[in-house]
Amino acid sequence: MHGSGTGSEGGVPPTGGGEPHAPTGGVDPVFLALERELAVFLRRARAQSGEMAREVHPELEPAAYGLFVRLDDAGPQRATELAGYFGVGKATMSRQLRALEALGLVARDPDPADGRASLVRLTEEGRDRFRSVRDARRGRYVRKLADWDRAEVAELARLLNHFNVRFEG
């Protein structure tokens, strides 16, 4: 797999032919490398989310982009489900949703399963704006990974999924 550009070959120090590697300062260097690469990845992802949110609408917070992704993927959901999915409080989610509603990017409809609750959904404008930005982002991924073998891209996606599933809940 291609290196990350953070200085170490492949992003992970070699372990010397499969033999056990002595931890440095009590921490295995492989996990130190993982921590370092994740920190770079997360910093870049946060910056990119902010840019993409502003492309959807100049007044959006970076966290809004994740809401668009979730609503587009999973369809209408209760605000409490969204708060649980993102690991934020109900008050935080309510504030974010009110801002998106005020911009006309999401709407609430009565929940057919429980008339006292509502389901949040993307409006047509919200969906169109989000998908336009998402498609442009996907194009950037394709260009940046053009020299990767498709099997490498598939393996990266598989490993990231495995990692994400481990950290759910």
Structure, described:
The protein has 169 residues and is mainly α. It has 6 helices and 2 strands, in the order ααααββαα. The chain has helices at 29-56, 63-74, 79-86, 90-102, 124-144, 150-166, and strands at residues 106-111, 114-122. The protein has a two-stranded antiparallel sheet. It is globular.
Largest beta sheet: what is the strand line-up?
1-2
Instruction: Please state the structural category.
Output: mainly alpha
Shape: globular
The level of helicity is 55-70%
Low-confidence stretches: 1-20
Give the overall average pLDDT. Answer: 86
Query: Radius of gyration in whole Å, from Cα?
Result: 20 Å
Order of helices and strands: HHHHEEHH
The span between the termini is 30 Å
* Residue fraction in strands: 5-15%
Number of helices: 6
Number of strands: 2
- Main sheet makeup: 2 strands, antiparallel
